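Worked example 2:
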Amino acid sequence: MERQLKAFAATLLLGTTLAPAAHATRAYVSNERSSTVTVIDVEKGAVEAEWPVGNRPRGIAMTRDGKALLVAASADNAVEMRDPATGALLAALPSGADPEQFFPAYSGNLLFAANEDNAAVTAIDLDARKVAWQVTVGDEPEGVAQSPDGKWLLVTSEEDNTVAWIDLATRTVAEEMETDARPRHIEFEGKGQKVWIAAEMAGTVQIADVATKSIEQTIAFAPPGVPAYKVMPCGIRFTPDGKTAIVALGRADSIAVVDVPTRTVRGYVKVGDRPWHLAVTPDGTRAIVANGASDSVSFVDIAAMQVTATIKAGGGPWGVALGR
């Protein structure tokens, strides 16, 4: 039990969206075309339910206390709070225009949502169920992540090819860092000294140093038999031990397994069509990948780099959150 609890604590530090439990028993998959959430029993590998939700759901996460499932109803300009057991709507939160990705704050009860249509990031007070504050960022913001020490909020701008470094103490943009083309997702590594940025149109993941706020390394991907123009990195997740990163490669129909200490690609796994986002189970053994163009979810054994199951989801699976 002690080992399981340590693994879960490490997972929270890495910014994944898990309920506070040693084991994830459910995977929640947002389906942007069918406006539903597919609920999967992780151990059985079977669909339990498919819930209707708001229009064009994309970002999906559990609250830090695991009591609510958060769903970005992008076309409704709202974030829905839902009962993770039944799918019942608890509240529809104001979120700014077209929320896409979001990030639950490490402390307090804020949710940071990137607003794609109005070049802003919105902090939503989950207790008061209202907007706490908003900061203007670059055009078409999408990826958003808070540093584990709570000092920084980073937001990608797909149109401007930048990352905004927001000082949370002053709620101002301290710096705009240039990136490769069309940064879609951002994820802090380990204790937060480095940050990984998926640049979709460049086909790369860039690694930035937090102390200097500058790019220090770029990782390129070349899945066998896949034309370079189809390699479109998006979702990134780390295993709880921090040793492995899993990168969804979009229209390459593959994920990449990356060795974090050496920054080298161990290999590729062919999944469904257009994997956009994913989750890693708390024990670090499996990746659960949303395949947006094949309406399916792939379960991947990370060590073996093999798909162990493919499960039917709703229309256009987009994101995955884990809970109980």
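Helices lie at 2-13. The longest strand covers residues 46-52.
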